[in-house]
Amino acid sequence: MPPSADSSSYAVETRDLAKVFGSQRAVDGIDLQVPTGSVYGFLGPNGSGKTTTIRMLLGLITPTAGDHQILGHPMPAELTTALHRVGSLIEGPAFHSHLSGMANLRRLDAADARSDASTSDQRIHEALDRVGLKPAAGKRFRAYSLGMKQRLAIAAALLAPRDLLVLDEPTNGLDPQGTREVRHLVGTLAADGITVLISSHLLAEIQQICSHIGVMRAGKLVAQGSIDELRSTQTAQLVVHTPDPEQAAQVLARLGIGQVQRDGDVVTGTPGTEPPERISAALAGAGVRLRRFAIDRPSLEDLYVSLTGEGFEVRS
Ligand SMILES: Nc1ncnc2c1ncn2[C@@H]1O[C@H](COP(=O)(O)OP(=O)(O)OP(=O)(O)O)[C@@H](O)[C@H]1O
């Protein structure tokens, strides 16, 4: 089945996209929907299928099954037209360390058969300006910081006008400062109206800039949606700290609170739609003394960990 007729609202849309390597289903029938204008965080542990998906999206490898469209163009039928407006950073362009950032971009621009040589200088200056590298344009590549090197790679992807930017793990291997630089840059590109698909195995690194996320686990897309949608799927938990736990547990059970559990002087449960003020009034009415009363909503990190089993890297 081809992607839906209303494809214009998605910069990228796949239907049952799959890639099998030998006996391994690296990508196992995924329906990716990247809304136009979004910053879509494509998340998942190493080996979960993100790069394979991105390679299929960009026509670098042939899917085993499924369909997809990019910027409204069915792939691979309209590959050339679609990719004209797509910038990508997968393994990163090979830069020459002894050449300046500007000279490197000049070489890449000249190598693009579609680029107009007479407007090359303007394109290169604009791309350097966009990634904040104009002041360092004449510096040798090897003197660039990690963040600057990655920003130059993004500048290379921006040598032509783009509606969609696909970045595969652009913060991988960067120090915290470099990560901040890439994050800031993605934010400014998104503000200019470019849809950004950015993959990472660390939610914490890209969460602040994403409007949407999709989570891969073992080749499957196990969650997808806007950050708000995904947050709202998280079950809230009622937490009561009290010197009267026995009594509190009885009151909560009577109110119909789900999964009431006692652990020392802490009583927990799932409040469902029961308003907090009704719960606290019932506890007070029964003479339960409260040290802490809270309804905690698990964070997006909790959701990511529960979906993927991934912990968080602690950087020294
Ligand atoms: N060309 C290939 N031949 C055989 N297996 C492959 C090939 N490319 C990827 N795989 C396998 O497919 C699975 C998914 O790999 P993929 O690189 O897409 O994951 P990923 O989520 O991008 O992880 P990473 O961040 O480590 O690249 C892995 O088990 C990988 O070993």
From TrEMBL:
Residues 12-243 form the ABC transporter domain. It holds the Pfam family ABC_tran. One of its GO terms (molecular function) is ATP binding. The keyword Transport applies. Keywords: ATP-binding, Nucleotide-binding, Transport. The keyword Oxidoreductase does not apply. It comes from the Bacteria. Belongs to the ABC transporter superfamily. PANTHER family: ABC TRANSPORTER, ATP-BINDING PROTEIN. This is ATP-binding cassette domain-containing protein.
